[in-house]
Amino acid sequence: MSYSDLESLELLNRALNPSRVVDLTHTLAEGIPSFPTHPKFSRSGWPSHDDPAELNQLVLSDHSGTHVDAPAHFVPGVDDPRRVTIENVSIDAFVGPAVRLRLGPFESTGVAITATEIIDWESTHGAIQRGDIVLFDFGWGKAHWAPVPRGFAHAIGWPGLARDAAELLVARGAKAVGTDCLSVDPAGASGDGLAAHYTLLPSGVLILENLANLDLLPDRCFLIALPLPIAGGTGSPVRAIAVLPE
Q: What percent of the chain has pLDDT over 90?
């Protein structure tokens, strides 16, 4: 190993100092909020009389908890080249510079953020750059994430992105878009009205949902959100962390 390799490892070690890392991941536990139509997370012990090791059986969706949507989640045509399942998404898509937009707080009325509001944010905080991972901190997860029944509020009236906001992020060259809400589309959207999903995913822009602790981030940081390489997966739970600048 060369001196430059050792120097690079030392820089990485410094960057990942616990004092500079923020965990953006909710704990997977029974009763966490989810869409009514999605499988629920459950964990059960799996004892065996002839095995001294302790282990559990997990039942979950590939969109349980803090997770990433792969393009295949909203590209149904099996022959469509845009239909990329999670194990085939390049690993570098889950790592990169991130910009955090703090907007809100909002009432539980399904507010749709427009392109104008993003442009207004950029005028004060700086432009979104090609390759950025764009994180929307609506204060929603901080206010509402909890086991049900209290956590039912997380799944009612959350804010999201209007079509023109999603189109702007595609035009800006965003690598991924994240939110602390149940979905990047606002509550009440359904079918063809899920404009953010239908705009971002076919364009190769990944979606991160149910992020935690976005309020602890500065405007810019570095994001790592690695999925499981699930064969044929339309998404995956992730362990998302932010590395803060010095």
A: 82
Query: In terms of Cα–Cα distance, which of 88, 66, 40, 112 is closest to 225?
Result: 66
Give the CA dihedral 90, 95, 97, 103, nearest 10 degrees: 100
Tokens of 101: 């937009």
Cα separation of 212 and 181, whole Å? Answer: 9
7-33: pLDDT as tens digits? 666 666 776 777 789 999 999 999 999
Helical segments of the chain, H only = 3-15, 115-125, 140-144, 163-172, 195-200
pLDDT tens, residue by residue, 117-172: 999 999 999 999 999 999 999 999 999 999 999 999 999 999 999 999 999 999 99
Could you give the domains of the chain?
A: 3-243 (3.50.30.50)
What confidence category does residue 5 fall into, taking pLDDT thresholds of 50, 70 and 90?
low
With H, G, I as helix, E, B as strand and everything else as coil, classify residue 160. Answer: strand
Q: Which residue has the tokens 């953010």?
A: 196
Closest by CA to 166, choosing from 183, 147, 153, 182, is 183
Measured between alpha carbons, how far is 154 from 67 in angstroms, rounded to an integer? Answer: 15
- With a CB cutoff of 8 Å and minimum separation 6, the contacts of 179 are 135, 136, 138, 140, 160, 207, 208, 209, 210, 211
